[in-house]
Design goal:
The chain is of the alpha/beta class. It has helices at about 45-65, 85-100, 110-115, 165-175, 185-190, 215-230, 235-265, 280-295, 310-320, and strands at about 5-10, 15-20, 25-30, 75-80, 105-110, 135-140, 145-150, 155-160, 270-275, 295-300.
């Protein structure tokens, strides 16, 4: 008999609900929050208020789009963390009420693990083969940059992580210096396609092991612009596309250098990409070239599954449901949550 899982995602500024029947995605509804753009970043209090307004209509839309009633749902999976505590609380509280009313289990999901689990979703837009265990995943988002060995659906080991800024933060903070709107990453990506990635060079960290660092790059970029603007107040305006291309190449080089080393060290050639920054066209192209060069079997998610969404929560919940990994009704959200 088929299993129906309702997924709830509310870790940051997107309210999302999705329904999965076994591994097949029936719906994935997302409500964004444009209110944060004028502040140049997500305002936690505004985010939690918007989640309270959005969650009921979003869940209702997801159920209708899936063509199922709430009484048919077998369990509800929700993001426990990491994320903004107020935002997580909205999703957790809704899940508690929904499952209590229907007498069905609730299933906590780690948001970061869920990003990796998108590779197991089957849908009309994704019928690609799934990775075999173990595989190595480069998880790159606005708040996290990690290298993860995925041993099974529930067992994942972080072998490298950022010690300061994440790659997505580096994109956004440097984009702000270029006068680009928030979120800056997509704007850098767009401009980079028109620029020369070899025009400028910026500092790269020299860390042992597989850990990442991007704060030095951000500082290097800041000082570089400061010095050039003293000589030419129009420097950024004249060179914005080349600056974007050179910045993007530097970040990608840092990411892939560690990934190559991790693959060689572990002997794992099944390589996956996940997280919001995995939508970056330059990164997708570069990792594709690396896979051909090193004989990797590469798994890259559809663009619609790269950013925060409830489909990834639902698929994670599905496998946890099969394993009987249910949550108690006194569970609380966690702003910081580890594997």
């Amino acid at each position: 008999m088929a299993t129906l899982i309702l997924g709830i995602e509310s870790s940051c500024d997107d309210t999302s609900a999705a329904v999965i029947r076994d591994r097949f995605l029936l719906s994935n509804v997302i409500a964004g929050q444009d209110v944060h753009r004028k502040y140049g970043g997500v305002v936690p209090e505004l985010a939690s208020r918007a989640h309270q307004q959005n969650i009921v209509p979003v869940v209702d839309s997801a159920l209708k789009e899936a063509g199922v009633s709430r009484n048919e749902i077998d369990a509800v999976a929700f993001t426990r963390g990491p994320g903004l505590l107020g935002s997580l609380l909205v999703g957790t509280s809704f899940t508690k009420g929904f499952t209590a009313a229907l007498g069905i289990p609730m299933i906590e999901v780690n948001h970061l693990q869920a990003h990796i689990m998108v590779h197991f979703i089957q849908s009309e837009i994704s019928q690609a083969p799934t990775p075999r265990f173990p595989f190595l995943c480069l998880l790159v988002s606005g708040g996290h940059t990690q290298l993860v060995v995925v041993r099974d659906h529930h067992t994942m080991e972080i072998i490298g992580r950022t010690i300061d800024d994440a790659a997505g933060e580096a994109f956004d903070k440097c984009a702000k210096l270029l006068g680009l709107p928030y979120p800056g990453g997509p704007h850098v990506d767009r401009l980079a396609q028109e620029g020369d990635p070899l025009r400028f060079s910026f500092n790269k960290p020299r860390l042992e092991g597989f850990d990442y660092s991007f704060s030095g790059l951000k500082t290097s970029f800041l000082y570089f612009l400061r010095d050039r603007l003293k000589e030419d107040p129009e420097f950024i305006e004249r060179n914005r596309t080349d600056l974007a291309a050179s910045l993007q190449k530097t970040i990608i080089d840092i990411l892939l250098n560690k990934l190559r080393r991790a693959s060689k060290k572990t002997g794992i050639r099944q390589i996956a990409l996940a997280g919001g920054v995995s939508a970056n066209s330059g990164l997708r192209k570069a990792i594709g070239e690396e896979s051909l060069k090193y004989g990797w079997e590469l798994f890259v998610p559809p663009l619609s599954f790269t950013t925060d969404n409830a489909a990834m929560i639902a698929i994670s919940g599905y496998y946890r449901y099969l394993g009987g990994l249910f949550s108690s009704d006194d569970i609380a959200p966690l702003a910081r949550m580890y594997f």
